[in-house]
Write a structure and sequence with these properties.
about 325 residues; alpha+beta; Alpha-Beta Plaits; 2 domains; 12 strands; binds adenosine-5'-triphosphate; binds L-homoserine; EC 2.7.1.39; cytoplasm; nucleotide-binding; Homoserine kinase; GHMP_knse_ATP-bd_CS
Amino acid sequence: MTQYYYAPASTGNFSVGFDLLGAAFEPVNGQLLGDVLEIRAECAQSHLSLSGRYHHQLPTDTDHNLILRCYQLFQQRLGKELPGLELHLHKELPVGSGLGSSACSIVVACYAFNHYFGEPLSKPDLLQLMAEAEGGVSGSVHYDNVAPSYLGGLQLMLPGSSRLSRALPWFDHWRVVLCYPGTTLSTKAAREAIPPQLPLATCIDFAAGLSRFISAMYVQDEAEALAALQDVVAEPARALLMPELPALRQALTGLGVAHLGISGAGPTVFALCSSEQIAEQAAAYLAAHYEKNQDAMTHICRLAPQGARTLKDPTQCS
Ligand SMILES: Nc1ncnc2c1ncn2[C@@H]1O[C@H](COP(=O)(O)OP(=O)(O)OP(=O)(O)O)[C@@H](O)[C@H]1O
Ligand SMILES: N[C@@H](CCO)C(=O)O
């Protein structure tokens, strides 16, 4: 019987935690915003077919698709050969968008294989495998998309700890408008824009912003958390890749939006809003002024408390 698996979109960095903070999101209207993988049957040789709004952005040769790459990595990690699988991917996240598209496919694939074969890998081992697979795409291992997409919520990475990451408190009334303009930015190229070394003063500002944000989230001081949201690492370096940002920020601030940041490596932006009403205005503004072609999309989201999972109602996928 076909099994359906889902993993949500994610925003890496969240302005104050370059490579260390990431959040999973879901549209408030109940739509799915993430990739769905079907395991249809076992067969002699693994085979992948594609559908979904953004499948045209993927390599036509499915041997280069991350889903099949993850199946190889999963078998290598187990140290044994597994049966071939007939797989189908519903690609619902645009590639090179800043919504953690490659991470989403990696997470749904690794989660699905582990579930299908009776959970041979522990949660931390699976997360590590996901991060390594993501590192193969972006040029360096970072967990800020795979961890929230796998585990859900707002996740703080804990490098060096066996926990790998920890879910932080959130504000339930916060809404996040995600607007993807329909154009592409390669994560690898956006990472290369960031200088390999930063001045000490920037390092201190970065640590201060992240500490201020995390402590404010724990004590639920909303004004302090919002005031802390300033990107001193990625945004200054990536500003040239996203020249519209200052004008968008000015207009959205006028509408009452609390913060506008780059989602992951861009070009998607996220507008953090303290009410549904402001989020609706922000979504209308971004759809009118930042969407550039028919691939573009804008969603009003809340935090997705659950990450990767089996899907009970497959009629939800396109
Ligand atoms: N299933 C898949 N999903 C996404 N990308 C894939 C997949 N299979 C192969 N790829 C390739 O992986 C690369 C992903 O590039 P990149 O890391 O820039 O995008 P991304 O992960 O979608 O970006 P972001 O995290 O900013 O959304 C592309 O070259 C794409 O063709
Ligand atoms: N932290 C990563 C996320 C990529 O989606 C970056 O900004 O490069």
